[in-house]
Design a protein that fits this description.
- This protein has 247 residues and is α+β, with helices and mostly antiparallel strands.
- The protein has twelve helices and three strands, in the order H-H-E-E-E-H-H-H-H-H-H-H-H-H-H.
- It folds into two domains: 92 residues, Rossmann fold, CATH 3.40.50; 142 residues, Serine Threonine Protein Phosphatase 5, Tetratricopeptide repeat, CATH 1.25.40.10.
- Strands 1-2-3 form a three-stranded antiparallel sheet, covered by helices on one side.
- It is globular, with a radius of gyration of 19 Å.
- Pfam families: TPR_8 (PF13181).
Length: 247
């Protein structure tokens, strides 16, 4: 499996043993790399490591213009996948071919939003960085109205506002979560994050059968993301399937 950015992000800027990281995440291979930007140029380095043996299987460096950044990302992904498993599953192949935003500025706003979302110091009733993340995701879809992933992230932000009891208008937040999810899915019907948020919406509305349907879909579309399994488990729990929810 490919571990989600949310799980791997917990090790950012920490001095950790590679074998311990691999053991905690349940992976065999680890990708390390860096991105350096200067003017209109970018240098990307990446290396693939077998965590069990600490053996470097592959490394590469790219010096490109920013206009080529999405092509480089695809090239890096394909190179790593070819080293790990020459025969990709249909799901992993789709991930490599996922849609990119048409505008680099939209991508930058999206990444800024992710940074605030992943680094925020959240508590119940207060999460100032969540609002900053939303502002960047809003800018991303303003620049590129066809950027499905940013709409999905906006839906997720609305979900966090509900679960952390931040919102002062529950109905408005629920409706926004629904609308952002539907917009994301209209652009990418297999966006697992949007399916996850839509499952949560129907669960909040008491329509647990629909919540279960979308929870199962989000796991099918991305079985490697822990939030999707969490959503499925929570929905099963609400339906009274306690043993299944623990699996």
């Amino acid at each position: 499996p490919v571990i989600s950015r949310n799980s791997s992000f917990t090790f950012k800027d920490k001095s950790v043993n590679l074998k311990e990281v691999a053991k905690e995440l349940g992976v065999r291979y680890v990708v390390e790399g860096s991105v350096r930007k200067g003017g209109n140029k970018v240098r990307i380095t990446a290396q693939l490591i077998d965590a069990g043996t600490d053996h470097h299987l592959w490394s590469e460096k790219w010096d490109r213009s920013l206009e080529d950044i999405f092509e480089v990302q695809d090239e890096v992904s394909a190179s790593i996948a070819a080293k790990v498993a020459p025969s990709l599953s249909g799901y992993e192949q789709k991930r490599l071919e996922r849609n990119r935003p048409s505008n680099l500025s939209a991508w930058e706003e999206y990444l800024k939003g992710l940074r605030y979302l992943n680094e925020r110091g959240r508590t119940d009733n207060s999460d100032p960085d969540l609002e900053k993340a939303k502002q960047h995701f809003d800018k991303a879809v303003e620049i590129d109205p066809l950027f499905s992933e940013s709409y999905a992230m906006l839906a997720s932000c609305e979900l966090f506002e509900l679960t952390q009891q931040i919102t002062n208008d529950r109905e408005k937040t629920l409706n926004s979560m629904h609308d952002y999810s539907q917009k994301s899915l209209s652009l990418d019907s297999e966006n697992a994050l949007a399916l996850n948020a839509l499952s949560a919406f129907y669960s909040f509305e008491g329509k647990l059968d629909l919540g279960m349907e979308y929870a199962e879909q989000c796991v099918r579309c991305n079985p490697n993301h822990p939030f999707n399994h969490l959503r499925l488990g929570l929905t099963l729990n609400m339906l009274g399937s306690f043993e299944k929810s623990e699996e």
